[in-house]
Every structure is written in C-alpha cells, then in structure tokens.
Amino acid sequence: QSRLSREKEELEAEKRDLVRTSERRSQEVEHLNEDVKRLNEKLTEANTEKVKLQLKLDELQTSDVSVKYREKRLEQEKELLQNQNTWLNTELKAKTDELLHTAREKGNEILELKCNLENKKEEVSRMEEQVNSLKQSNENLQKHVEELLNKLKEAKEQQASMEERFHNELNAHIKLSNLYKVSLLTFKLLVCLILANKATQEHLAEVEESKAVMEKELREKISKLEKELENANDLLSATKRKGAILSEEELAAMSPTAAAVAKVVKPGMKLTELYNAYVETQDQLLLEKLENKRINKYLDEIVQEVEAKAPILKRQREEFERSQKAVASLSAKLEQAMKEIQRLLEDTDKANKHASVLARENQRLEIQVKDLSQQIRVLLMELEEARGNHVIRDEVSSADISSSSEVISQHLVSYRNIEELQQQNQRLLVALRELGEAREKEEQETTSSK
C-alpha cells in the first residue's frame, strides 16, 4: 500500500511536470505565433513601402509632364482669381455704399422712431395722468354715491318712521275727522234746532201777539156774547114759549158769533165751563213755553260745548295740514335725491366706460411702444453688425411664448431690412384678411342662429 501511494505520488508529480511542460510549450507557441504575426506585418509594411517607392518612381517619371500642365493651370487660376478679386472689390464697394446708405436711412428711421417713442411716452404719461385723474374722480364719485346711498338709506328710514308716525297721526286724524263729522252733524242738528227754536220763538211771539189780540177780541166777543146770550136767552124763552126750535142757519143769521161759538162750545155748556176751557188752554200754553225754554237751555249748552272744542279742533286741523305739507316736502326731497343719485350713477357709469376706453388705449399704446422699441433694438443690432461689431442676440424659445400677443411680437413686429419689412407686411395682410373672414363668418353664424 505504501508502494502504491508512492507510485501515486510519483505519477502525480509526473503529471504536474507534464502540465507545466505543456503550459510552457503553449507559451512558446504563442510567442512563436506573435513572432510570425510581427514578421508578417513587417513583410506587409515592406511590400507597402515597395509599392510607395514604385509609385514615387512613377511620379518622378511623370513629373516633368505634369509640372508643365500644372504651371499652365495655375496661371489660368491666377487670372480667374484676379478677375474674381476685381469683381469682389466692386461688389464690396457697392455693398459698402449700400450699407452706408442703409445705415443713414436706418439712422434717420431710428431718430424718427426715437422721437415717436418720446412722443408716445409723453402721450402714455399724459394718458396715465388722465387715467389716474379719472380713477380719482371715479373714487370721489363712488364715495359721493356711497354718501348719497347712506343719506338715501337714512332718508328711507326717516321716511319709514315718518310714514309710520304719519300713519298713526292719519289714523288719529281719521278718528278726529270722524269726530269732526259727528260734531258737524251735531252742529248742523243744533243749527237746525236753533233755527227751529228761533222759528218756534217767532211763532210763539206771533202766538202771543195773536193771543193778546185774541184776548182782546175774546173780551169784546165775550161782552158781545153776553149781550147775545141775553138776547139768545130771551129768544130761547120766546121760542120755548112758542114751541119752535131754531136751526143753525137761523142761529147764524140771527148771530154769527153765536154760531161760531156754538161749533166749539158743546150744547148746554155754561159760561163758567167756557172759562175753564180757556184756562186749560192757557195752562197748556204755559207748559209749551216751559218745554221751549228747556230746549233752548239744552241748545245753549251744546253751542257752548261746540264753541269750547272749536280751538282744539282748529289746532288739530292745522297740525294735520302741516303734517300733509311736511310729507309732501319730504316726498319732493326724496324724489330729488333719487334723481341726483340716478344722475350720479349715470355719471359714474360714463366715467367707468371712459376709464376703460382710456385703459385700453393706454394698453394699446404700451404695446405699440414695446413694438417700436423691439424694432429699434433689431435695427440697432443690424447697424452694429454692419459696422463689424459683434452683437449677442436674445433668442426666445417657442416654449416661452404663451400668448397670441407674444407670437405677434416675436414674428410680426421686428424686421432687419426692406425685404423682411415687405414680408412682414404681406404676413400682416394675410392675417388681417383671415381675421376679417373669421369675423364675417361669426357674424353670419350669429345672424343665422337668430
């Protein structure tokens, strides 16, 4: 077993030696391959050098012929270059003259644009002052309108309170007018009663006068009747004795007074009874006088009460008339204040419209000044470049352009020469026609939709 292990170790040692030998041989083969490759490269280089030398030899052999042709071609090229140089000098002089002329024109244009720019700046400043003045006027008008609105509010509140107070007073005056009506009716009734009383008094006076006359007449008639009664008694006695009865016609023919009294006095009525009837009539007349006196006293009390309330009623009527005048005056003032507020609102509206017009005009002038400044800047850059100075241009990327105004300012405002100005004018005319067509189309669509 030990022997096998030794043999095994020997075999492994031989194996390692063979591996090392194989590796060394491989390295030698690689070195040899590299040497072969290097030699091949040298051979290739040698062949290339040989070809080059052969070409040089051929060139040297043909150089005599080619030199002659080259000299002839160089002379022709020299002549062409001289002609071209002369033409270029002529063109340079023409371009220089044109550039100087253009520079003078651009200088004049720049001066004119600067003058226009100064004028526009002054106009813009003046417009800004006008806008500020109009803004201040608008603020003052708004403050005045607010004050008037506050006054209007206070006037409305005052009017509401006064209307409420006047409504209450009106109700009181209505009640008072009703009392007036009742008092007037009472007064009319009193007047009627007074007139009736006056008529009654006049009638009583007439009655008293007629009474006195009647008493006198009655006394006379009584005396006559006594005589006639005696005569009648005599006649009656005579007729009784004769047994005949007198008719009313006969009695009237005999004594008219007796016939009249006979109509009133009942048959068989004595003189005392007649006197008693006369006394009863006088008592009844006295009662009528007392009742008339009581009515007169009541009427006097009513008249005194009406006369006592007359100043109060007059004062209340005067207060009612003053209240009506105050309401009319306040209504006129309120109407005048409403007209003043309406006028101020119209003035404010006009001022706001004028301010908006001036603001748009100011914005338009600012854009115009900006465009003129851009044109002047481009022309100055072109002038500096024409003078030979290096100018750094501000390039604006398309990503920075965010509005139509910026697009117009970027592509339709600035120009560097007359040709670009004509191109800009053509583009502007095209854009203007497109806008006009779009506007007409919108108007037609609006008209058709209506």
Structure description:
One of its GO terms (biological process) is mRNA export from nucleus. Residues 348-444 form the NUA/TPR/MLP1-2-like domain. Keywords: Coiled coil, Nucleus. Pfam families: Nucleoprot-TPR, TPR. It is found in: Nucleus. With 450 residues, this protein is mostly helical. The protein is built from six helices and no strands. It is elongated, with a radius of gyration of 74 Å. Helix content is 92%, strand content 0%. The protein has a domain at 163-240 and 269-338. Helix 1 (2-242) packs antiparallel against helix 4 (271-386). The chain has helices at 2-242, 248-254, 256-264, 271-386, 404-411, 418-449.
Distance between the termini: 122 Å
Q: How many strands in all?
A: 0
Q: How much of the sequence is in beta strands?
A: under 5%
DSSP helix fraction? over 70%
Could you give a short account of the major beta sheet? none
* Structural class designation: mainly alpha
**How many H/I helices?**
6
Q: N-to-C SSE series?
A: HHHHHH
What is the arithmetic mean of pLDDT? 69
Ranges where pLDDT stays below 50 over 5 or more residues in a row are: 396-402
Q: Sum up the overall morphology in one term.
A: elongated
Radius of gyration: 74 Å
Keywords: Coiled coil, Nucleus
Domain NUA/TPR/MLP1-2-like: 348-444
Domain Nucleoprotein TPR/MPL1: 63-142
Region (Disordered): 1-33
